[in-house]
Each structure stands twice: as structure tokens, then as C-alpha cells.
Design goal:
The two termini are 39 Å apart. The chain has 2 domains: 2-138; 142-182. Helix content is 85%, strand content 0%. It is mainly α and 182 residues long. The longest helix is centred in the last third of the chain and has 38 residues, at 144-181.
Length: 182
């Protein structure tokens, strides 16, 4: 009886295939939508070349904002793919096709939920930074205080990136020292 219960408990992990599949389907949808946005962006790029120089500035901001939106969409697609692959490797089994791939070493360094969480947190931070700059491009800076707020925001973003890289370095040092002790 105990073995049967343990077998059922162990096999319950296979339900995680549902979020893996959903994550990959949503990733494909996001990548499709973003690619359609790229096609629409190309018409704006063509229009930019035909517009008078005086009226290029608003179009330029619109194009740069669209480019940032495209980067954001592709990053979101990447997050969803990494999330799906990470869940699969953590709960289902190792991906055999990835075992002999150089790319897998860079993409799938996920050995625990903390590894998956760290990788996703870093990608989400990048998306937030991209969104911040998209909003910052569209803002109208009318007072010196607006520029001060922008400067403080950029400094805080720099601080966040610095702290994340420090945390990665500390984690790598800890892993290295643990591996060296073995």
C-alpha cells in the first residue's frame, strides 16, 4: 500500500506537463503577434523616409517606441519558453535532445526552482527596463524636476542591474567554492 501511495505521489508531478504545454503555446502566440508588429513597423520605417524632415521627430519617437515594444514581445516569448523548458526539466525529466547541445548549457542551467526563479527574474527585470525606456521616450519633459526624476530613475535601474550582477557573482563564487571543496 505504501509503495502504491508513493508511486501515485511521484506521478502527480506529471501534471506539470499542462503548464509546460500552455507556456509554449502562449510563447508561440506572443512571438507570432510580435512578428506581425514587426511587419507593421516596417511600413512606418518606409514612411519615415518619405516624410518631411520637420515632421520626422514624432514619427521617430513612434518608431523607437515600436522597436522597444518588439524587443519586449520577443523577451516575453523567451521567458515563456525558458519557463516551459525549466518546468519540464524540473518536474518531468531531462530533455535528451539538449544533453549534447552547446546551446543547452547556456539556456538550461536550471537545476532547482531557485535557478528557474533567478533566470525568470532577470528576464523580467530586462522587460521592465525596456518598458521604462518606452514610457520615458513618450514623456514630455517640461520642467527641470522632470529631468531629475528621469535621472533618478535611470540611476535606480543601474543600481538594480548592479545588484543583480553582484548576486549572480556571489552565487557563482558560492557554487565554485562548493564544487572545489568536493
Amino acid at each position: 500500500m505504501k509503495r502504491s501511495i508513493e508511486l501515485v505521489l511521484w506521478n502527480v508531478r506529471l501534471i506539470m506537463i499542462v503548464p509546460v504545454i500552455v507556456s509554449l503555446i502562449v510563447a508561440a502566440g506572443v512571438l507570432f503577434i510580435t512578428t506581425i508588429d514587426v511587419v507593421a513597423l516596417s511600413s512606418s520605417l518606409v514612411r519615415y523616409g518619405t516624410v518631411e524632415t520637420a515632421s520626422r521627430s514624432p514619427l521617430y519617437i513612434e518608431i523607437i517606441s515600436s522597436v522597444i515594444s518588439v524587443v519586449d514581445g520577443y523577451l516575453l516569448g523567451a521567458i515563456l519558453i525558458i519557463f516551459g523548458l525549466g518546468l519540464y526539466e524540473l518536474f518531468i525529466e531531462k530533455i535528451d535532445a539538449a544533453e549534447n547541445s552547446e546551446l543547452a548549457g547556456r539556456l538550461l542551467l536550471i537545476h532547482s526552482l531557485d535557478d528557474l526563479k533567478d533566470r525568470l527574474a532577470n528576464l523580467i527585470l530586462v522587460i521592465l527596463i525596456v518598458k521604462f525606456f518606452q514610457v520615458a521616450l513618450k514623456m514630455k519633459y517640461t520642467e527641470p524636476l522632470d529631468l531629475l526624476y528621469l535621472s533618478i530613475s535611470v540611476a535606480l535601474i543601474g543600481g538594480a542591474l548592479y545588484l543583480t550582477s553582484k548576486a549572480k557573482g556571489a552565487k557563482a563564487d558560492k557554487t565554485y567554492s562548493t564544487d572545489a571543496a568536493k
